[in-house]
Write a structure and sequence with these properties.
Blueprint (H helix, E strand, L loop, with lengths): L12 H7 L9 E4 L14 E5 L4 E5 L24 H28 L1
Parallel strand pairs: 1-2
Antiparallel strand pairs: 2-3
């Protein structure tokens, strides 16, 4: 659900103070915990360290990001992979296929000599 037009976008005032009057190149990473802050045009070019709950993830703000929230570019969940017995069997078959392909390529180069 979007924020009311009457209220306007939520932009963290402390973040604006940190970037006010500074150049994006000279400023390092600006750490922030304000994931709900909407990216405004003044923020373009700056690098923000957006907290994801564990550590800060660097986000370089571009023109395409204006209007989005900082938290959208700092994922909070890490996908490991789907696992299980079937997945292990598939990975073993794939590894065997790679090994056999490497052996075939090696034998092909040996016969050329």
């Amino acid at each position: 659900m979007t924020r009311s037009l009457k209220k306007g976008p939520y932009v963290d005032e402390r973040l604006l103070k940190k970037i006010e009057g500074k150049k994006p190149i000279e400023t390092g990473i600006i750490k922030t915990w304000s994931r709900a802050c909407v990216i405004s045009p003044e923020m373009v070019g700056f690098v923000f360290g957006v907290h994801n709950g564990k550590h800060h993830i660097e986000v370089l703000v571009t023109e395409d990001m204006v209007g989005h929230r900082l938290g959208e570019f700092s994922p909070t969940r890490k996908f490991v992979r789907h696992g299980g017995k079937m997945q292990k069997e598939l990975e073993a078959k794939k590894k065997e296929a790679e090994i056999s392909a490497a052996k075939a390529a090696k034998s092909a180069t040996d016969t050329k000599k």
